[in-house]
Amino acid sequence: MTRKKVAVIGAGFSGLTLAWALTKQGFAVEIFESADRVGGLLGTDKDTIPVEKAANALLASASVEQLLADINAVPQIAGYRSKKRYIFRNKPSSFPISIFNAATGFSKILFLKLIGKLSPRNDETISEWCQRCLNKDFEQYLVSPALQGIYGTETNQLSAELILGGIFNKAIRPKKGNLRGSLSMDGGMQELVDKLVQYLKERNVVFHFSDFANSESFTATVIATSAFRASSLVPEKYQKEFSTITMLPLTSVTMGFAKEKPIKGFGCLFPIKENFHSLGVLFNSDIFSGRGPLQSETWILNNAEYPVDLILKDRKRLTGLNESPQFFKITEYKKALPQYSLGLKKFLLSDMFQRVEEKSPFEVFKNGARLKDSFTYLTGNYLGGIGLTKILDYNIRLSERLKKDLT
Asked: Rounded mean pLDDT of the chain?
């Protein structure tokens, strides 16, 4: 019997891992990529020091371990130096909240939980939730920088339902495996991409480096691109819904320094109140081995002119060192991340999706996004979960939905 064929549009991390999950469900898969390379934002440039194009690691989980075992990739576990993480408050601090403010904040949370008022209210932002359920100190020096490092924007722009629902919803939380922390490979994230491509080709997945044109020979189509690109690929009647998604710019600058810095750890986040130009910095040489020979750091900013000059000012304030880099490489994305705002929540609640449960902000992320009256599906970081591990878990669930829908 001929296997049912699925077209996957986009060969980034979403498209590649979905193809992996679909082959395990028995589908024949063809991938269409308009660029001349696979991996999307993911990949590693081998310059003077390795430079990650975007994410530098996956968070360990059962599904990540399954994926790495299948594609014969040996995980590189984050080193002991990476256990320390800092938030800047006058100086780098592991916990920048006073004992008094921490005690009052946790007491307030416990009380609200007991009386059933801890959950986010309708259309409440993270900033509003923090003011109601914690205190200003918690928001400014713990919650805001932590979420800014993940979602790339301020708490007054983030939907509390989307962010907190994603953290506490057990149905969509990645299951723990045997490993913990951040995982990469000796060859960086490019090795993950290369191993995935090799695995897929060995299972007769066909790669087309062209735009997707003809859907007639496929049982189903999955759009595995950014939200911005997907908006031009979905049927015209659904394109208006995509206009509610705001895409955020991001600039990363990887630098190599001759001297070893005075602080060790995973990195440091910068609260808005501290008036840094950068959102944060990753200490690559402290996280994974083989990131030398120079001391490697990756600084993250929202779009900025002259980012190197701004970063060196931030670095002097952080480390006390007035050192010029021996190497730097700038990577800029004008539309890097979907903003997890009330606009995205509105998109996830729209009537464009064929649902299998009652409508909620996480229904499509839990069950897979399928457009109404069609066999067109969506995958990507704008569907309720940001981060590679969450996307991987979503793709496994989406592949299971396709199997149910098509058999």
From this structure: 93
Q: Taking the complete model, does pTM exceed 0.90, yes or no?
A: yes
| Interval 21-63: pLDDT, tens | 999 999 999 999 999 899 998 999 998 999 999 999 999 999 9
Angstrom distance (rounded) from CA 196 to CA 28:
16
Q: Is the distance from CB of 348 to CB of 383 less than 8 angstroms?
A: yes
User: Which phi and psi angles does 179 have, rounded to 5°?
Assistant: -95, 160
Average pLDDT over residues 283-304: 92
Phi and psi dihedrals of 301, rounded to 5? -135, 160
For 202, the token pair is 């060995």
CA distance 309 to 313: 7
- Three-state DSSP state, 406: helix
Per DSSP bridges, beta strands 182-184 and 76-77 are antiparallel
Q: How many Cβ atoms are within 10 Å of 131's Cβ, its own excluded? A: 15
Which strand (E) or helix (H) includes residue 329? strand 327-338
Cα 130 to Cα 86, 144, 146, 265, distances in angstroms: 21, 9, 13, 28
Domains and CATH numbers, the chain: 5-42+188-245+340-406 (3.50.50.60), 96-172 (1.10.3110)
Reported confidence tier of residue 234, pLDDT bands at 50, 70, 90: very high
Residue bearing tokens 């994603």: 166
Which residues, other chains included, contact 52 with Cβ-Cβ below 8 Å and sequence gap of 6+?
43, 44, 188, 189, 252, 254, 298
Give CA–CA dist 81/258, Å, rounded.
19
Q: What are the DSSP calls for 162-209, one per residue?
A: HHHHHHH-GGGSPPP-S--SEEE-TTTHHHHHHHHHHHHHHTT-EEE-
The answer to whether 338 and 344 have CB atoms below 8 angstroms apart is: yes
* Segment 118-161, tens digit of pLDDT: 999 999 999 999 999 999 999 999 999 999 989 999 999 999 99
Could you count the other beta carbons within 10 Å of the beta carbon of residue 169?
16
